[in-house]
Design goal:
InterPro entries: AAA+_ATPase (IPR003593), ATPase_Atu1862_pred (IPR014588), HerA-like (IPR008571), HerA_central (IPR002789), P-loop_NTPase (IPR027417). By secondary structure, the protein is of the alpha/beta class. It is built from 20 helices and 14 strands.
Protein backbone atom coordinates (compact mmCIF):
# COMPACT_ATOMS: atom_id res chain seq x y z
CA UNK A 1 0.00 0.00 0.00
CA UNK A 2 1.39 3.37 -1.03
CA UNK A 3 0.89 6.09 1.59
CA UNK A 4 1.89 9.66 0.81
CA UNK A 5 1.97 12.20 3.64
CA UNK A 6 1.86 15.95 3.22
CA UNK A 7 5.09 17.61 4.37
CA UNK A 8 4.13 21.10 3.21
CA UNK A 9 4.30 22.98 -0.08
CA UNK A 10 6.80 22.74 -2.92
CA UNK A 11 7.78 25.41 -5.40
CA UNK A 12 4.78 26.53 -7.42
CA UNK A 13 2.35 25.84 -4.58
CA UNK A 14 2.16 22.09 -5.21
CA UNK A 15 1.97 19.79 -2.18
CA UNK A 16 5.24 18.21 -1.05
CA UNK A 17 4.45 14.52 -0.62
CA UNK A 18 6.62 11.95 1.11
CA UNK A 19 6.07 8.25 0.32
CA UNK A 20 6.17 6.46 3.69
CA UNK A 21 6.48 2.96 2.18
CA UNK A 22 9.48 4.07 0.10
CA UNK A 23 10.97 5.85 3.12
CA UNK A 24 10.89 2.62 5.14
CA UNK A 25 13.14 1.02 2.53
CA UNK A 26 15.49 3.93 1.78
CA UNK A 27 15.92 5.95 5.03
CA UNK A 28 16.23 9.75 5.46
CA UNK A 29 18.92 12.26 6.43
CA UNK A 30 17.98 15.78 7.61
CA UNK A 31 20.66 18.45 7.94
CA UNK A 32 20.53 22.07 9.03
CA UNK A 33 22.18 24.46 11.44
CA UNK A 34 20.55 25.27 14.77
CA UNK A 35 17.38 27.28 14.15
CA UNK A 36 16.87 26.02 10.60
CA UNK A 37 13.70 24.09 11.50
CA UNK A 38 14.93 20.50 11.78
CA UNK A 39 12.85 19.70 14.88
CA UNK A 40 9.80 21.29 13.22
CA UNK A 41 10.35 19.09 10.16
CA UNK A 42 10.69 15.93 12.27
CA UNK A 43 7.55 16.81 14.23
CA UNK A 44 5.61 17.31 10.98
CA UNK A 45 6.83 13.94 9.70
CA UNK A 46 5.92 12.20 12.96
CA UNK A 47 2.48 13.77 13.23
CA UNK A 48 1.53 13.01 9.64
CA UNK A 49 2.71 9.40 9.77
CA UNK A 50 1.60 8.51 13.31
CA UNK A 51 -1.50 6.64 12.13
CA UNK A 52 0.38 4.62 9.51
CA UNK A 53 3.56 3.32 11.13
CA UNK A 54 5.05 2.59 14.56
CA UNK A 55 7.48 5.29 15.67
CA UNK A 56 10.47 5.37 18.02
CA UNK A 57 12.16 8.71 18.73
CA UNK A 58 15.62 9.06 20.31
CA UNK A 59 15.20 12.49 21.91
CA UNK A 60 18.31 13.97 23.61
CA UNK A 61 16.55 17.20 24.68
CA UNK A 62 13.07 15.95 25.64
CA UNK A 63 11.40 18.02 22.89
CA UNK A 64 9.18 15.27 21.48
CA UNK A 65 7.56 13.98 24.69
CA UNK A 66 4.53 16.18 23.91
CA UNK A 67 3.58 13.71 21.16
CA UNK A 68 2.28 11.45 23.92
CA UNK A 69 -0.59 13.84 24.72
CA UNK A 70 -2.15 13.72 21.24
CA UNK A 71 -0.82 10.56 19.63
CA UNK A 72 -0.33 8.26 22.63
CA UNK A 73 3.45 7.77 22.45
CA UNK A 74 4.90 6.06 25.53
CA UNK A 75 7.60 8.19 27.15
CA UNK A 76 10.64 6.16 28.26
CA UNK A 77 13.06 7.87 30.64
CA UNK A 78 16.64 7.10 29.63
CA UNK A 79 17.82 7.24 33.24
CA UNK A 80 17.74 3.43 33.54
CA UNK A 81 20.23 0.58 33.39
CA UNK A 82 21.29 -0.74 30.00
CA UNK A 83 19.58 -4.06 30.71
CA UNK A 84 16.30 -2.28 31.51
CA UNK A 85 16.45 -0.21 28.32
CA UNK A 86 17.19 -3.26 26.17
CA UNK A 87 14.25 -5.12 27.70
CA UNK A 88 11.87 -2.17 27.19
CA UNK A 89 13.01 -1.81 23.56
CA UNK A 90 12.36 -5.49 22.94
CA UNK A 91 8.85 -5.24 24.37
CA UNK A 92 8.22 -2.07 22.34
CA UNK A 93 8.75 -4.12 19.20
CA UNK A 94 6.65 -7.02 20.44
CA UNK A 95 3.61 -4.88 21.24
CA UNK A 96 4.10 -2.38 18.37
CA UNK A 97 3.84 0.69 20.60
CA UNK A 98 5.21 4.08 19.53
CA UNK A 99 7.52 5.64 22.09
CA UNK A 100 9.87 8.53 22.86
CA UNK A 101 13.19 7.75 24.57
CA UNK A 102 13.95 11.00 26.38
CA UNK A 103 17.59 11.46 27.39
CA UNK A 104 17.15 14.92 28.90
CA UNK A 105 19.29 15.54 31.97
CA UNK A 106 21.88 12.83 31.19
CA UNK A 107 25.50 13.58 30.43
CA UNK A 108 26.64 12.97 26.86
CA UNK A 109 28.32 9.63 27.60
CA UNK A 110 25.26 8.39 29.48
CA UNK A 111 23.07 9.50 26.56
CA UNK A 112 25.23 7.54 24.11
CA UNK A 113 25.11 4.38 26.24
CA UNK A 114 21.35 4.64 26.80
CA UNK A 115 20.60 5.20 23.11
CA UNK A 116 22.91 2.35 22.10
CA UNK A 117 21.30 -0.07 24.56
CA UNK A 118 17.81 0.87 23.35
CA UNK A 119 18.68 0.61 19.64
CA UNK A 120 20.46 -2.71 20.17
CA UNK A 121 17.43 -4.02 22.06
CA UNK A 122 15.22 -3.19 19.07
CA UNK A 123 17.76 -4.59 16.63
CA UNK A 124 18.01 -7.92 18.50
CA UNK A 125 14.25 -8.56 18.60
CA UNK A 126 13.05 -11.97 17.42
CA UNK A 127 12.28 -12.33 13.73
CA UNK A 128 8.55 -12.73 14.38
CA UNK A 129 8.46 -9.12 15.66
CA UNK A 130 10.21 -7.47 12.71
CA UNK A 131 7.35 -5.08 12.01
CA UNK A 132 8.06 -1.72 10.26
CA UNK A 133 9.29 0.96 12.67
CA UNK A 134 10.25 4.56 11.89
CA UNK A 135 13.29 5.25 14.10
CA UNK A 136 13.96 9.00 14.40
CA UNK A 137 17.28 10.08 15.94
CA UNK A 138 17.62 13.79 16.64
CA UNK A 139 21.12 15.32 16.97
CA UNK A 140 22.58 12.20 15.33
CA UNK A 141 26.11 13.63 15.36
CA UNK A 142 26.15 13.01 19.12
CA UNK A 143 25.47 9.28 18.70
CA UNK A 144 27.52 8.69 15.53
CA UNK A 145 30.46 11.11 15.75
CA UNK A 146 32.96 11.18 12.90
CA UNK A 147 35.92 11.57 15.29
CA UNK A 148 36.64 10.64 18.89
CA UNK A 149 35.63 13.30 21.39
CA UNK A 150 35.76 13.66 25.15
CA UNK A 151 33.78 10.47 25.82
CA UNK A 152 35.40 7.10 26.42
CA UNK A 153 36.22 4.85 23.49
CA UNK A 154 33.90 2.05 24.58
CA UNK A 155 30.90 4.43 24.82
CA UNK A 156 31.67 5.89 21.38
CA UNK A 157 32.11 2.47 19.80
CA UNK A 158 28.93 1.17 21.42
CA UNK A 159 26.87 4.13 20.19
CA UNK A 160 28.45 4.24 16.73
CA UNK A 161 27.93 0.48 16.32
CA UNK A 162 24.23 0.78 17.19
CA UNK A 163 23.74 3.66 14.73
CA UNK A 164 25.60 1.75 12.02
CA UNK A 165 23.38 -1.28 12.58
CA UNK A 166 20.29 0.93 12.35
CA UNK A 167 21.28 2.54 9.06
CA UNK A 168 23.14 -0.36 7.39
CA UNK A 169 21.38 -3.52 8.57
CA UNK A 170 18.13 -2.25 10.03
CA UNK A 171 16.06 -2.40 6.82
CA UNK A 172 15.73 -6.19 6.83
CA UNK A 173 14.56 -6.00 10.45
CA UNK A 174 11.92 -3.40 9.64
CA UNK A 175 13.90 -0.49 11.16
CA UNK A 176 13.87 2.66 9.01
CA UNK A 177 16.33 5.27 10.23
CA UNK A 178 15.55 8.99 10.08
CA UNK A 179 18.57 10.92 11.36
CA UNK A 180 18.86 14.68 11.86
CA UNK A 181 22.12 16.54 12.40
CA UNK A 182 23.38 20.10 12.70
CA UNK A 183 26.75 19.31 11.13
CA UNK A 184 27.28 16.81 8.32
CA UNK A 185 31.03 17.10 8.89
CA UNK A 186 30.60 15.80 12.46
CA UNK A 187 28.44 12.81 11.42
CA UNK A 188 30.16 9.50 10.66
CA UNK A 189 30.28 9.03 6.89
CA UNK A 190 29.31 5.34 6.93
CA UNK A 191 26.11 6.29 8.79
CA UNK A 192 25.19 9.23 6.55
CA UNK A 193 26.00 7.31 3.36
CA UNK A 194 23.25 4.74 3.95
CA UNK A 195 20.47 7.32 3.56
CA UNK A 196 18.92 7.64 0.10
CA UNK A 197 16.59 10.55 0.91
CA UNK A 198 17.80 14.00 1.94
CA UNK A 199 16.28 17.19 3.32
CA UNK A 200 18.92 19.91 3.50
CA UNK A 201 18.23 23.13 5.41
CA UNK A 202 20.09 26.36 6.13
CA UNK A 203 23.84 25.83 6.44
CA UNK A 204 26.69 28.33 6.72
CA UNK A 205 29.98 26.45 6.99
CA UNK A 206 31.74 25.74 3.69
CA UNK A 207 32.54 22.11 4.51
CA UNK A 208 28.90 21.35 5.37
CA UNK A 209 27.59 23.16 2.29
CA UNK A 210 29.99 21.22 0.08
CA UNK A 211 28.91 17.86 1.55
CA UNK A 212 25.24 18.82 1.21
CA UNK A 213 25.75 19.76 -2.44
CA UNK A 214 27.57 16.47 -3.09
CA UNK A 215 24.78 14.43 -1.52
CA UNK A 216 22.17 16.23 -3.63
CA UNK A 217 24.20 15.87 -6.81
CA UNK A 218 24.51 19.64 -7.21
CA UNK A 219 27.40 21.67 -8.52
CA UNK A 220 29.53 23.01 -5.70
CA UNK A 221 29.01 26.52 -7.03
CA UNK A 222 25.33 26.08 -6.21
CA UNK A 223 26.14 25.26 -2.57
CA UNK A 224 25.84 28.95 -1.67
CA UNK A 225 22.05 28.61 -1.88
CA UNK A 226 22.01 26.79 1.48
CA UNK A 227 23.00 30.03 3.21
CA UNK A 228 19.94 31.80 1.83
CA UNK A 229 17.32 29.27 2.92
CA UNK A 230 14.75 30.58 5.37
CA UNK A 231 13.74 28.80 8.53
CA UNK A 232 11.51 25.82 7.70
CA UNK A 233 12.68 25.68 4.07
CA UNK A 234 14.59 22.63 2.84
CA UNK A 235 15.87 21.14 -0.41
CA UNK A 236 14.51 17.61 -0.89
CA UNK A 237 15.92 14.74 -2.91
CA UNK A 238 15.36 10.99 -2.93
CA UNK A 239 13.06 8.22 -4.12
CA UNK A 240 10.56 8.96 -1.34
CA UNK A 241 10.57 12.72 -2.07
CA UNK A 242 11.69 13.84 -5.51
CA UNK A 243 13.97 12.57 -8.26
CA UNK A 244 15.43 16.08 -8.66
CA UNK A 245 16.41 18.64 -5.98
CA UNK A 246 13.13 20.24 -4.92
CA UNK A 247 12.80 23.27 -2.59
CA UNK A 248 9.96 22.75 -0.11
CA UNK A 249 8.49 24.65 2.83
CA UNK A 250 7.46 22.53 5.81
CA UNK A 251 3.83 22.89 6.87
CA UNK A 252 2.35 23.61 10.29
CA UNK A 253 2.32 21.15 13.20
CA UNK A 254 -0.38 20.26 15.72
CA UNK A 255 1.82 19.82 18.79
CA UNK A 256 4.63 21.97 20.15
CA UNK A 257 7.87 21.33 21.97
CA UNK A 258 8.26 22.11 25.65
CA UNK A 259 11.13 24.42 24.75
CA UNK A 260 10.91 27.15 22.14
CA UNK A 261 13.10 29.82 20.61
CA UNK A 262 13.74 32.74 22.98
CA UNK A 263 11.64 35.85 22.45
CA UNK A 264 12.62 39.39 23.30
CA UNK A 265 10.73 40.84 26.26
CA UNK A 266 11.28 43.97 28.36
CA UNK A 267 13.03 43.70 31.71
CA UNK A 268 10.86 44.13 34.83
CA UNK A 269 11.18 47.23 36.97
CA UNK A 270 14.03 46.81 39.43
CA UNK A 271 12.87 46.71 43.07
CA UNK A 272 14.29 49.21 45.55
CA UNK A 273 16.11 46.56 47.57
CA UNK A 274 17.66 44.82 44.56
CA UNK A 275 21.13 44.63 46.13
CA UNK A 276 19.76 42.97 49.26
CA UNK A 277 17.90 40.43 47.10
CA UNK A 278 21.03 39.54 45.16
CA UNK A 279 23.68 39.50 47.88
CA UNK A 280 21.65 38.04 50.77
CA UNK A 281 21.92 34.22 50.55
CA UNK A 282 18.93 31.96 50.97
CA UNK A 283 19.29 29.75 54.10
CA UNK A 284 18.61 26.66 51.94
CA UNK A 285 21.70 27.37 49.85
CA UNK A 286 23.96 26.27 52.69
CA UNK A 287 22.24 22.87 52.83
CA UNK A 288 22.67 22.08 49.14
CA UNK A 289 25.66 19.86 48.36
CA UNK A 290 28.26 21.40 46.08
CA UNK A 291 28.88 19.11 43.12
CA UNK A 292 32.10 19.74 41.25
CA UNK A 293 32.32 17.93 37.95
CA UNK A 294 35.60 19.35 36.83
CA UNK A 295 37.95 16.62 35.52
CA UNK A 296 40.83 15.67 37.79
CA UNK A 297 43.99 17.68 37.26
CA UNK A 298 46.64 15.84 35.22
CA UNK A 299 49.62 14.50 37.13
CA UNK A 300 52.76 16.61 36.73
CA UNK A 301 55.36 15.13 34.39
CA UNK A 302 57.99 15.39 37.12
CA UNK A 303 55.94 13.08 39.39
CA UNK A 304 55.59 10.48 36.66
CA UNK A 305 59.32 10.58 35.87
CA UNK A 306 60.18 10.30 39.54
CA UNK A 307 57.89 7.29 39.90
CA UNK A 308 59.44 5.64 36.87
CA UNK A 309 62.94 6.19 38.22
CA UNK A 310 62.02 4.71 41.60
CA UNK A 311 60.53 1.60 40.01
CA UNK A 312 63.50 1.03 37.64
CA UNK A 313 66.06 -1.60 38.78
CA UNK A 314 69.38 -0.28 40.01
CA UNK A 315 72.16 -0.47 37.41
CA UNK A 316 74.91 -1.77 39.70
CA UNK A 317 76.53 -4.10 37.13
CA UNK A 318 79.21 -2.79 34.73
CA UNK A 319 78.00 -1.54 31.39
CA UNK A 320 79.84 -4.26 29.52
CA UNK A 321 77.99 -7.02 31.39
CA UNK A 322 74.51 -8.01 30.24
CA UNK A 323 71.72 -6.88 32.52
CA UNK A 324 70.45 -9.67 34.72
CA UNK A 325 66.90 -10.82 34.12
CA UNK A 326 64.23 -9.76 36.58
CA UNK A 327 63.69 -12.32 39.37
CA UNK A 328 60.52 -14.32 39.21
CA UNK A 329 57.79 -13.47 41.71
CA UNK A 330 55.87 -16.03 43.69
CA UNK A 331 52.11 -16.18 43.28
CA UNK A 332 51.62 -14.51 46.68
CA UNK A 333 54.02 -11.66 45.90
CA UNK A 334 52.45 -11.06 42.50
CA UNK A 335 48.98 -11.00 44.02
CA UNK A 336 50.15 -8.47 46.63
CA UNK A 337 51.48 -6.18 43.88
CA UNK A 338 48.28 -6.51 41.85
CA UNK A 339 46.19 -5.66 44.91
CA UNK A 340 48.41 -2.68 45.74
CA UNK A 341 48.08 -1.24 42.22
CA UNK A 342 44.33 -1.79 42.27
CA UNK A 343 43.97 0.01 45.62
CA UNK A 344 46.06 2.94 44.36
CA UNK A 345 43.63 3.45 41.49
CA UNK A 346 40.47 3.05 43.56
CA UNK A 347 41.73 5.35 46.33
CA UNK A 348 41.42 8.24 43.87
CA UNK A 349 38.05 9.95 44.66
CA UNK A 350 37.41 10.53 40.96
CA UNK A 351 37.75 6.82 40.09
CA UNK A 352 34.09 6.20 40.91
CA UNK A 353 33.04 8.44 38.02
CA UNK A 354 35.38 6.91 35.41
CA UNK A 355 34.47 3.94 33.25
CA UNK A 356 35.95 0.51 33.93
CA UNK A 357 37.73 0.50 30.57
CA UNK A 358 39.55 3.74 31.42
CA UNK A 359 40.53 2.40 34.84
CA UNK A 360 41.69 -0.84 33.22
CA UNK A 361 44.03 1.03 30.88
CA UNK A 362 45.52 2.90 33.85
CA UNK A 363 45.84 -0.41 35.70
CA UNK A 364 47.87 -1.93 32.84
CA UNK A 365 50.14 1.12 32.67
CA UNK A 366 50.83 0.96 36.40
CA UNK A 367 51.62 -2.76 36.17
CA UNK A 368 54.28 -2.02 33.56
CA UNK A 369 55.65 0.79 35.69
CA UNK A 370 55.94 -1.57 38.69
CA UNK A 371 57.63 -4.25 36.56
CA UNK A 372 54.97 -6.81 37.49
CA UNK A 373 55.66 -9.90 35.33
CA UNK A 374 53.14 -12.32 33.93
CA UNK A 375 49.98 -12.03 31.88
CA UNK A 376 47.73 -9.25 33.24
CA UNK A 377 44.17 -10.04 34.23
CA UNK A 378 41.46 -9.67 31.61
CA UNK A 379 38.94 -6.83 31.58
CA UNK A 380 36.04 -8.99 32.93
CA UNK A 381 38.24 -10.20 35.78
CA UNK A 382 39.36 -6.62 36.46
CA UNK A 383 35.74 -5.47 36.64
CA UNK A 384 34.99 -8.26 39.08
CA UNK A 385 37.94 -7.29 41.31
CA UNK A 386 36.91 -3.62 41.19
CA UNK A 387 33.36 -4.51 42.23
CA UNK A 388 34.61 -6.57 45.18
CA UNK A 389 37.07 -3.87 46.26
CA UNK A 390 34.43 -1.14 46.11
CA UNK A 391 32.13 -3.17 48.34
CA UNK A 392 34.57 -2.55 51.22
CA UNK A 393 34.56 -6.18 52.41
CA UNK A 394 37.28 -7.07 54.92
CA UNK A 395 39.33 -10.27 55.00
CA UNK A 396 37.33 -11.87 57.82
CA UNK A 397 33.97 -11.24 56.14
CA UNK A 398 35.31 -12.46 52.80
CA UNK A 399 35.85 -15.92 54.34
CA UNK A 400 32.25 -16.33 55.51
CA UNK A 401 29.69 -18.55 53.81
CA UNK A 402 27.26 -15.64 53.49
CA UNK A 403 29.77 -13.64 51.45
CA UNK A 404 30.36 -16.63 49.19
CA UNK A 405 26.61 -16.70 48.56
CA UNK A 406 26.68 -12.96 47.82
CA UNK A 407 29.44 -13.45 45.23
CA UNK A 408 27.43 -16.23 43.63
CA UNK A 409 24.31 -14.05 43.47
CA UNK A 410 26.24 -11.09 42.04
CA UNK A 411 27.19 -13.11 38.96
CA UNK A 412 23.52 -12.93 37.97
CA UNK A 413 23.54 -9.15 37.53
CA UNK A 414 25.26 -7.15 34.79
CA UNK A 415 28.87 -6.01 35.19
CA UNK A 416 27.94 -2.37 35.80
CA UNK A 417 25.65 -3.31 38.73
CA UNK A 418 27.91 -5.75 40.57
CA UNK A 419 29.65 -3.04 42.60
CA UNK A 420 26.33 -1.70 43.93
CA UNK A 421 24.99 -5.19 44.62
CA UNK A 422 28.07 -6.30 46.57
CA UNK A 423 28.15 -3.05 48.58
CA UNK A 424 24.56 -3.70 49.71
CA UNK A 425 25.35 -7.37 50.36
CA UNK A 426 28.35 -6.46 52.51
CA UNK A 427 26.21 -4.10 54.59
CA UNK A 428 23.68 -6.92 55.08
CA UNK A 429 26.29 -9.55 56.00
CA UNK A 430 27.94 -7.21 58.52
CA UNK A 431 24.65 -5.81 59.85
CA UNK A 432 25.60 -2.25 58.87
CA UNK A 433 23.06 0.52 58.17
CA UNK A 434 21.59 0.52 54.66
CA UNK A 435 23.67 2.81 52.40
CA UNK A 436 22.11 6.13 51.46
CA UNK A 437 21.00 7.11 47.95
CA UNK A 438 24.09 9.29 47.59
CA UNK A 439 26.43 6.41 48.45
CA UNK A 440 24.65 3.99 46.10
CA UNK A 441 24.78 6.56 43.30
CA UNK A 442 28.50 7.09 43.84
CA UNK A 443 29.11 3.32 43.70
CA UNK A 444 27.34 3.29 40.33
CA UNK A 445 29.37 6.24 39.05
CA UNK A 446 26.68 8.92 39.04
CA UNK A 447 25.45 11.87 41.11
CA UNK A 448 21.76 11.03 40.61
CA UNK A 449 19.95 9.89 43.78
CA UNK A 450 16.96 9.14 41.60
CA UNK A 451 18.97 6.56 39.70
CA UNK A 452 20.08 4.96 42.98
CA UNK A 453 16.45 4.38 43.93
CA UNK A 454 15.81 2.88 40.52
CA UNK A 455 18.69 0.46 40.99
CA UNK A 456 17.12 -0.79 44.21
CA UNK A 457 13.81 -1.14 42.38
CA UNK A 458 15.52 -3.13 39.65
CA UNK A 459 17.13 -5.52 42.16
CA UNK A 460 13.75 -5.97 43.81
CA UNK A 461 12.10 -6.71 40.45
CA UNK A 462 14.70 -9.43 39.86
CA UNK A 463 13.82 -11.01 43.21
CA UNK A 464 17.32 -10.69 44.70
CA UNK A 465 16.43 -8.18 47.44
CA UNK A 466 13.42 -6.99 49.42
CA UNK A 467 13.30 -3.27 50.32
CA UNK A 468 11.18 -2.11 53.26
CA UNK A 469 11.21 0.51 56.03
CA UNK A 470 11.01 0.41 59.80
CA UNK A 471 8.66 2.43 62.00
CA UNK A 472 11.01 5.43 61.86
CA UNK A 473 10.90 5.46 58.05
CA UNK A 474 14.49 4.24 57.63
CA UNK A 475 15.28 1.89 54.78
CA UNK A 476 16.21 -1.78 55.15
CA UNK A 477 17.43 -4.03 52.32
CA UNK A 478 16.96 -7.77 52.94
CA UNK A 479 18.57 -10.63 50.98
CA UNK A 480 16.26 -13.68 51.17
CA UNK A 481 18.82 -16.08 49.67
CA UNK A 482 21.41 -15.04 52.26
CA UNK A 483 19.00 -14.88 55.21
CA UNK A 484 20.30 -11.49 56.32
CA UNK A 485 19.45 -7.82 56.01
CA UNK A 486 20.98 -4.41 56.56
CA UNK A 487 20.36 -2.34 59.65
CA UNK A 488 17.95 0.59 59.19
CA UNK A 489 19.59 3.47 57.32
CA UNK A 490 18.58 6.97 56.26
CA UNK A 491 18.11 7.01 52.49
CA UNK A 492 18.61 10.79 52.37
CA UNK A 493 21.75 10.89 54.52
CA UNK A 494 24.77 12.79 53.26
CA UNK A 495 28.34 11.49 53.28
CA UNK A 496 29.07 13.52 56.43
CA UNK A 497 26.09 11.96 58.19
CA UNK A 498 27.20 8.43 57.32
CA UNK A 499 30.76 9.08 58.48
CA UNK A 500 29.47 10.49 61.77
CA UNK A 501 27.19 7.48 62.23
CA UNK A 502 30.04 5.05 61.53
CA UNK A 503 32.28 6.82 64.06
CA UNK A 504 29.60 6.54 66.74
Amino acid sequence: MQVGIDMGSASGGNPATLDIEELLATRLLVQGNSGSGKSHLLRRLLEQSAQWVQQVIIDPEGDFVTLSDKFGHVVVDGERTEAELAGIANRIRQHRVSCVLTLEGLEIEQQMRAAAAFLNGMFDADREFWYPVLVVVDEAQMFAPSVAGEVSDDARKMSLGAMTNLMCRGRKRGLAGVIATQRLAKLAKNVAAEASNFLMGRTFLDIDMARAADLLGMDRRQAEMFRDLKRGNFVALGPALSRRPLPIQIGNVETSARSSSPKLMPLPDAPQDVEDLIFTPDPEEFQRPIVRRAPPAPRPTTDILAELSRSAPAASAPVSEPRSSQPELSAEEREERLAAVLHEILDDPSSGFRTDSVLYQEFLVRLRMRRVPGTPMSLPEFRRRVAISRSGVDAATAETEAWGTALSLSSGVTDDLQGVFLMLAKAAVCGEPCPSDARIARAYGTHSARRARRLLGYFEEQGTVVVHTDFAGKRIVAFPDMNCQTAPGDANATDADEMRSAAE
